[in-house]
Amino acid sequence: MRKLQNRIIVWPAYFDSSKTQREGRKLPKKLCVASPKVEEIVKAAEALGLNPQPDFEARYPRAWWAEKGYVVTDKIESKRKTLYRIAEKILEFRRT
User: Fold this and answer.
1) 90 with 41: CB under 8 angstroms?
2) Distance between CA 27 and CA 50 in Å, rounded?
3) Which tens digits make up the pLDDT trace of 5-51?
4) How is 13-79 classified by DSSP, letter by letter?
5) For the whole model, what pTM was predicted?
6) H or E element that contains 85
7) Max CA distance (Å), the chain
């Protein structure tokens, strides 16, 4: 896979509260949600101005049997900081 210049790939598994870190969750459970969707990640990234580009047919390598997709977005300083911001937006959208 080629390196992305100032962009990152964001998989729904990163935000899934039902997954363990070994299964792909990247954030603390308090920032995660049940069954995140690619559409939610796109909406959150758009709200943050990160120019999201979704791929709905991709399969997460740790769960190759499930077709979930991913989103390529711009990066805010670091990948972790970008994921935190997206997670906060997803939580905000789910609360309303």
Assistant:
1) yes
2) 19
3) 889 999 999 999 999 999 899 999 999 999 999 999 999 999 999 99
4) GGGBTTS-TTTT--S-GGG-BSS--HHHHHHHHHHTT---EEETT-B-GGGTTSB--EEEEE-BSBH
5) 0.89
6) helix 79-95
7) 38
Domain boundaries, the chain: 7-95
18: Cβ contacts below 8 Å, ≥ 6 apart: 34, 35
CB 71 within 8 A of CB 41: yes
List of residues 6+ apart from 70 with CB closer than 8 A: 9, 10, 11, 12, 38, 54, 55, 58, 60
Using DSSP's 3-state secondary structure scheme, residue 92 falls into helix
Q: Under CATH, which number does the domain 7-95 receive?
A: 3.30.56.30
- To which residue do tokens 């949600």 refer? 33
Contacts of 90 (CB under 8 A, 6+ apart): 15, 33, 36, 40, 41, 44
